[in-house]
Amino acid sequence: MQSISDIYFIGGFGTVQWVDVKEYETLQPDKIAADGGEQNLKELNAIFSKPLRKILSTEAEIDDAALISIDSKGIDIRVRQGAQFNIQRLSFEVVKGVETLEEAKRALQEIINKA
């Protein structure tokens, strides 16, 4: 691809918008998302899946909570209640965002400690 003329973002749940090409070309992916994403999620799930399920169960019992994506600002969690699934977003309370697995662990531990 030599030249990008238009970018149209289509996300989940009706999220659609035009993306400025010049802005897009200057962006870099989040370090935490680009470096070892799948392995990072496996490790974070092993440590935090049960505690996250517990803190997300304040209104209704949750059968399972699994981290499915991470970026510098937070995590997306697939939550299962019986046969129903939904995605919940938890934002990190770190101003500059997280860049490494260790920073993500600390940020998640802070969320759990405050719950």
Automatic annotation (TrEMBL):
Q: Which InterPro entries match?
A: Haem_oxidase_HugZ-like_sf (IPR037119)
Gene3D superfamilies in UniProt? PNP-oxidase-like (3.20.180.10)
Q: Which domain of life is it from?
A: Eukaryota
**Name this polypeptide is given:** Uncharacterized protein
